[in-house]
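Figure 2 data, in text form.
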Amino acid sequence: MIRRFLAPHDATPSHVIKMVMWPLALVTVADMVLYKAIPGHHTNDFTPVHHAVSAFLRHEPVYTANLSSVDPHYLYPPGGTLLLAPIGLLDEANGRTVFLLLNLLAAVLAVHLLLRMFGYTWRSPLAPVAYFFLFLSEALVNTLTFGNVNGLFFLAEVVFLTLLLARRDIAAGVVLGLTIAIKPILVPLLLVALLRKQWSTVAIAVAMPVLTTATAWPLAVDPGRYFVHNLPYSLQVRDYFNSSISGIGAYYGVSSVVTLLARGVLAAMVVISLWLLYRYYRHQELFFVTTATGVLLTAEFALSSLGQQYYSMFLFPFLLTVVLRSSVLRNWPAWLAIFGFASYETWLLFRWPAFGRDLEYSRTAFAWALLLVVVCCVLSDRYLAARRQGRLADGIDPARLAPDFPPKDRYVASQVESGAGIEAR
C-alpha cells in the first residue's frame, strides 16, 4: 500500500503532474501567507482605508489626507466608502487580519470558478498549476502583504465573466457596478458587454456607482471634497510607483511627445486586436470574452495615468486561455512578457545598481507593452495568412492547431457544452 501511494506503477501523466504540483502549490500558499502576508510590508494600503471608513462611521471628514506625500492615500469615492464601511467596525489590527483572509479566500474561490469556466475541476492537473502560479505571483503576494482589495476584485471579475457568459445580464451588471463604485479598475469590461450587446448589464453597471454615491452623500461629512480634492489627484500621472508608460516617461524625464507616440502606437495595436477578435472570434464566446478582457485590461494598465504591477492579477483569466486551441498565448514571447509582470522576484542588481534599478522599475511597463504587441502580431498574422489563402469566410484560425490542453474534466465539460452556452460550436 505504501509503495502504491509513493510510487504507483500505473500513474498517468495527469497523476504525476498532480503529485508534483499539489505539494508545491500548498507549500507556496503557506510560505506566502505565513512569511509574507501576515507580517505585512512597509507599504500599507489598509491603514488609509481603515482610517477613512472609521471616520465615515464617526461622521467625521474623510478626504483630509495630504496628497503631496508618497504614502498610500485613500482615493475611493463616497459610494465606495459606504460599501467598505463594515471594515471600520473592527479595530485596525483585527480588521487587517479579516481583510487579508477575505482577499485570500476570494482569490482561491476565483481560481476555482475560473477553472470551472474553462471546463476543469480541482481534480484536473491544471488546478495545482494554476494555484501555484497565482500564489507565486507578485500580484497576489503584494495584494495580501499591502492589505489591498484586489483579491476581492479578482473574484468579482471572475463572477462577472461567468455571469456574462451565462447571459445573466442583471446579476453581471450588479457585480461589475459594485466594483466600479469602489474603484473603476474594471471599467473596461463594460466594452466587452457592449460588444456582446448585453445592454442591461452596461446600464446597471453604470447606475450602481451613481446609486451608491447618492446613498452615501447625506451620510458623509465631506463627499463633495472627493471630486475637487481626491479625484483630480487620482487622474494625474505620478512619477513614483507607476508602471504605466506615462509613469515611466515621467520618472525618466522622457519627452511628452515620445510618450504620447508610444501610447498611440500601442493603442492602435489594441484597436486592431479588438477588431480582429470581434470580427472572427465573437462566436467562440469563452475565448472571445477572456481574451478581449485581457487585451482591454492590459491596455488600461499600460496606457492610463496609473498602472501598478499587482493589477496584473486581473489578467489571470486571459492567461488561462493558453489551454484553448485558438489561444494567442502559445508562443514564447507572450510568456516572456508574462514573466516580466508576474514575477515577484526583484531585478535590483547590487553589482550593477544603475542597470538593475532601471530594469526593475521599467520591466512591468515593457512586459505589458510586449504582451499587447504579441497579441496584435499573432492575430494580424492569422488574418493575413487566411486572406492570402482565401479562407477568411471560414475564420482566421490556422488549419492546423493543437487541441485544447489538458483534456477537460468530462463532467464539467459536458455541463459547459450542453448547459451554459459558454463555448459556441
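Caption note: Residues 1-235 form one domain.
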